[in-house]
What we know:
Blueprint: E1 2-5, H1 10-14, E2 21-31, H2 36-45, E3 58-62, H3 78-89, E4 92-97, H4 103-111, E5 115-118, H5 123-128, E6 130-137, E7 146-161, E8 164-165
Parallel strand pairs: 1-2, 2-3, 3-4, 4-5
Antiparallel strand pairs: 2-7, 5-7, 6-7, 7-8
Helix pairs in contact: 2-3
Amino acid sequence: MIEINTPISEEVIANLKVGDMVYISGRIFCGRDAVLPKIVKMTEDGTESELGVSLQGGVIFHTANSIAGVGPTSSNKLEIESSMEPLSKAGIKLHLGKGAIHPETVEALDKYNAVFAVIPPVTALLGDKTSSQELVAFPELGMEAFYQLEVDRYPAIIAAAHGRSIY
Length: 167
């Protein structure tokens, strides 16, 4: 198992390979269908500093944040998968979710030295590994708002890296 702490450096990402098993610790962001297009627009408008957090070296977990806990949603939903390239360009290094992504997305991740990892859909396990959660932006979206979590050793498998995919 490879231990990864956020923010993630370019060197750490450059050394990951498809199939690597990792533990992710530190602050990560949560976002899915409703909020990711808003975050992309902010990066394109140059207003992401209004979030009050840095995306550099960050992780985006494709999930909502509810009282039931967090668990991955399908990363190949249009609103989610189409956010991966612009958010990688904006500094996100690891996209965390589930399911196969398109070859074009795998290439886009490679272009910005970012990776995609899959995480098992085990809400109870992840709850025990989440020490705090903070609403960052878009509270009107409820559980689909943009959140930041503090996590300890989230387990994941690198599914796409450097132009290759497990799918």
